[in-house]
Specification:
Blueprint (H helix, E strand, L loop, with lengths): L1 H11 L12 H23 L10 H5 L6 H6 L5 H12 L3 H29 L4 H12 L2 H6 L6 H21 L3 H17 L6 H10 L10 H30 L9 H8 L5 H5 L6 H15 L32 H6 L1 H17 L3 H18 L1 H25 L1 H19 L13 H29 L6 H4 L6 H24 L1
Helix pairs in contact: 2-6, 5-6, 6-7, 6-9, 7-23, 9-10, 9-11, 10-12, 11-12, 11-21, 13-17, 13-18, 15-17, 17-18, 18-19, 21-23
């Protein structure tokens, strides 16, 4: 009798809290990582993404000045990714082999991240096919597809962001134990160390710990604040320690002397030349120099040449075009001329005013950005909202244009047409009302919260300083294709169930 009762309780226990799915968790995880590594490597080899590709940022990582602490403190990059490059090049017989090894490391890191995410989705109660589909959508997302072979931080930082999110999912499910909290802190810190744009992970992680997905039963606030303290302490201590190191060595208490040139290329476009020249204070001289230089660049007298007669009188037309309609005051024109404003106007102007010291240049650019935002807050707020809108539709468009996702979308459209023609092939909701279905619903709710909050926080952070172009915003939308994948797998599952019942 007791054995029967115990057996009954075991059968009723939902998958979301049982570990019986994985009798040997470590071995099972290693197998999953192995197969994802093979799959991603094969995809890269077939699609031409296996060979390393140098981009404009690559030199700044390869030439990192490890020779002295002062050089490191004054450099515009954090040492994490350069250290990875240095290690790969040190153990390789040649530079080409070393760079190839970097690509392999980025593939392996993505495989680990995707495996962790898939296992966690499975533990939440998703079926095997649904978990694989959700993980595959993350695995071949736009950031991996575009940057896995580039010698830059985009792919590796995105993978650590996925690991951080998978840790959050696990914490929602079983609670944030001290080891798990340390894992969340370490993975978010590694992502930030590779790419400071992932600083958004700190407020996002704190928010997700305080307001977590579940079934309406949350831990007490004291427990949640304890989790926040444990998770937030490691990144803050390390990052503040790095800032203190830079202050001690280079007299600059900040993460990097980098970033405000990107923001200045945005904020100075919000003002015409008269407004720039009227600015006073520490940033006044720089504002006047930027006003002068953007006219010179626009008319072809400095930097990249323009066609005769196409320069706007305020210097805001930095593109080669004879169509006046393309010089409209819109977000897209700000974005299109942002690159030229950064490298042909803002940075040369800062050098001319502040001298050759990159820290002095960055301080002056930061002061100018601060003055403009305080003097014209509504213009800056409008820019931010337009950048958010552009980031949303731009990232969605990139997902749709992704060759793999496009094929899946076409297939889904075919299934939708089949359902419209033959609606009885879809089983009723009553047939899906089972414990596995309820577990899947919990998993979907968790993934929806994760995907939307991750995208919104990441995009909002990027829009503060830069246009939300694909390279910056695609990584924030890494989980969005997973939602579509789950919806499609669910629809196909109901289709198979109905067809199976009709055949009987």
């Amino acid at each position: 009798m007791n054995d029967q009762a115990e057996s009954s309780r075991t059968r009723r226990e939902p998958d979301i809290v049982t570990h019986s799915l994985y009798p040997s968790p470590s071995f099972h995880a290693i197998k999953i990582v192995f197969w994802w590594s093979i799959a991603l490597w094969a995809m890269c080899a077939v699609s031409g993404r296996w060979q390393p590709h140098l981009v404009s940022d690559s030199a700044s990582y390869l030439d990192y000045p490890f020779a002295s602490l002062e050089s490191m403190a004054r450099y515009s990059r954090l040492p994490a990714y350069p250290a990875l490059l240095r290690a790969c090049l040190a153990i390789a017989p040649s530079e080409s082999v070393g760079l190839q090894l970097v690509v392999l490391v980025q593939i392996l890191l993505q495989a680990i991240a995707v495996s962790f995410f898939m296992i966690e989705m499975r533990r939440w109660g998703l079926s095997r096919s649904a978990a694989i589909a959700a993980a595959a959508a993350v695995a071949v997302g736009c950031s991996f597809w575009d940057h896995v072979s580039t010698i830059a931080t985009d792919c590796a930082a995105m993978s650590w962001g996925v690991i951080t999110a998978a840790c959050i999912l696990r914490g929602w499910r079983i609670g944030f134990s001290t080891p798990l909290a340390a894992g969340v802190a370490a993975s978010s810190l590694l992502s930030i160390s590779l790419r400071p744009a992932y600083l958004f992970l700190l407020p996002w992680v704190i928010t997700m710990v305080l307001f977590r997905a579940g079934d309406g039963v949350l831990p007490p606030w004291t427990r949640r604040w304890r989790d926040v303290a444990v998770i937030g302490s490691l990144p803050l201590v390390v990052l503040l320690g790095w800032c203190q190191f830079r202050y001690t060595v280079a007299n600059d208490f900040s993460l990097l002397p980098f970033g405000h040139q990107n923001m200045a290329a945005v904020t100075t476009q919000l003002l015409d030349n008269d407004e720039l020249e009227q600015m006073s204070g520490p940033g006044g001289a720089l504002a006047s120099e930027i006003a002068r230089r953007r006219v010179a660049v626009s008319t072809g007298r400095s930097g990249r040449a323009s066609q005769p007669g196409t320069g706007a009188i305020d210097g805001l037309d930095l593109r080669v075009t004879s169509d006046p309609s393309l010089r409209a005051d819109s977000y897209m024109t700000l974005e299109n001329r942002w690159d030229a404003m950064t490298y042909l106007v803002a940075i040369p102007a800062a050098i001319a005013v502040a001298g050759d010291d990159p820290i002095d240049q960055h301080r002056l650019l930061a002061e100018l950005d601060r003055q403009i935002v305080l003097a014209y807050p509504l213009r800056y707020a409008r820019w931010w909202m337009l950048a958010m809108r552009r980031g949303i539709w731009g990232s969605v468009a990139n997902i749709v244009m992704h060759p793999i996702f496009l094929m899946v979308i076409v297939l889904a459209a075919g299934v939708a047409m089949l359902v419209c023609i033959w609606p009885q092939v879809i089983s009723s909701r009553a047939e899906m009302d089972s414990e596995p279905a309820r577990c899947s619903a919990r998993a979907r709710r968790a993934l929806v919260l994760l995907a939307i909050s991750y995208a919104a926080t990441g995009l909002a952070f990027v829009a503060l300083t830069s246009p939300t172009i694909g390279r910056f915003s695609d990584a924030a939308f890494v989980f969005l294709p997973s939602l579509a994948a789950l919806a499609m797998v669910s629809k196909c599952g109901r289709l198979r169930l109905s067809l199976g019942q009709s055949s009987r």
